[in-house]
Amino acid sequence: MVKKVAIITNGGDCPGLNAVIRAIVKTAETHLVECYGYIEGYKGLLENNYIRLESNGTASGLLHRGGTVIGSSNSTNLFNYPIEENGQIVYKDMSYKAVENAKQAGFDCIFTLGGDGTQKSARDFSLRGLNVIGVPKTIDNDVAHSEITFGYNTAVSVATEALDRLHSTAESHHRIMTLEVMGRYAGWIALESAIAGGADVAIIPEIPYDINKIVEKINRRKEEGKKFSIIVVSEGAKPKNGEITIKKTLNEGKGVDNIRLGGIGEKLSRDLEELTGMVSRNTVLGYVQRGGTPTAFDRVLSTKYGSKAMELAIEEKFNVLVTLKNGKLGYVSLEEVIGNNKEIGARSRRNTKYKYKKSNNG
Ligand code: F6P
C-alpha cells in the first residue's frame, strides 16, 4: 500500500511543473499519502535532500507559478556521475547509493517529471528496484506516446506573441524577420507557432530546408506587394545536405545532453539578406519561451497529469509514464517511451502522420 511518495523535477524547467506538483500533493492528501520533493532533480536523490510538500504549506500557491519550487538539474546522470578523486574527475555509477537512500527514506513511489533523458534514468531506477511513475514534461512536445507534453502550449503561446510583435516591425521597415525557437530535434514549437502567428515560412528539423525555395517565396510575396516576410526556424533545423548548427559542445559525461543547439536563425538571416538583397534581422526567443506562468491550457493539463500520476500510484501501477491519447488519460510502460522521441512525420497524400524516431535526446 502506498503511504509515502516523492517528486523529482529533472531536466530543463518548463511551465506547469509546479501545477503538476500541486496536483500530486492534493491527490496524495485525499488518500492520506505523505508527499515529499527531492531538491534539484536526481541530484537530490543522491544527496538524500528532500522536503515535505503540503498543500497548506510548501505546495501552496503553485498553480500559476513558473519554474519548479523544488529545483531541477539538467546534467545529472547518476549512472555515470562525476566524482573528484585525487584531484581528478572520474565517472562512477552512483545509482545504487540513490536507490538505497530512497528505500531507507521509505518512499513507495517516486514521480519523475521530465523528458526522455529523465524517463530513461527512471526506467533504469525501476530495474534497480524503485517504483517510479513518469510525467511527460517538456516545451519541445517530443515525448513518445503522449499527444501533448505540459509546458508546450505555453511555449507556443509565447512564440506566437513574439511573431505578432515581429509582424508590425517587419512591415514598417520592409524587412525579413527570422525567429529562432527551441524544440531540439522536433519542430513542434516552430510549426504550431508559425501557423498561429501567420508566418510565411516554417523551418523544422524534420525537413532539411532548401534556401532557394525560401528565396522564391519571399520574392513572390514582394511581387505581390508584400515587402516583408516572417520566418520561424527551429533550433535543430538544417539545410539540405548541411549540418545542424551547434552553439557549444559540453563535456559533462555520458548519458546527458552535451549539445547546445543555436545559431541557425542568424545563419539563415544572413543567407537570405545576401540572396534577396533585402534587409533581414534575426531574433532568438530563448528561455523566455520556457520561463514564467503557464497558460490556462497547461494549468489544466498539468493538473490532469499530476492527479492521474497519483491515482496510478494508489493502484500500484508502477514503472509507467502518464499519457494523453485521443484526449484520454492513460499510461504506457517506460520501456516503450525512452529513445523514441516524437517528431513531425512526413506528410502522406491522405493524411499527416506522426512518426516516432529513435533518439537519445530530450
Ligand atoms: O528541452 C527543453 C529545452 O528548452 C530545449 O528546447 C533547448 O534546446 C534546451 O532545453 C536548452 O537546454 P539548457 O537549459 O541546458 O540550455
Q: Can you describe this structure?
A:
There is one protein chain. By secondary structure, the chain is α/β, with parallel strands linked by helices. It contains 10 helices and 17 strands. The protein has a 7-stranded mixed sheet, sandwiched between helices. The chain has a 4-stranded parallel sheet with strand order 9-10-8-13, with helices on both faces. The protein has a two-stranded antiparallel ribbon with strand order 4-5. Helix 7 (211-223) packs across helix 8 (264-276). It starts with a strand and ends in a 6-residue tail after the last strand. 6-O-phosphono-beta-D-fructofuranose (F6P) binds at residues 12, 74, 115, 138-140, 182-184, 235, 260-261, 290.
- Give a quick account of the main beta sheet: strands, pairing sense, barrel closure: 7 strands, mixed
Any low-confidence stretches, pLDDT <50, length ≥5? Answer: 346-362
Order of helices and strands: EHEHEEEHEHEHEHEHEEEHEHEEHEE
How would you state the average pLDDT, rounded? Answer: 94
Strand runs, count: 17
The DSSP helix count reads 10
* Small molecules (ligands, ions, cofactors) in the structure: 6-O-phosphono-beta-D-fructofuranose
Helix percentage range: 25-40%
Q: What is the general shape?
A: elongated
Helix-strand makeup class: alpha/beta
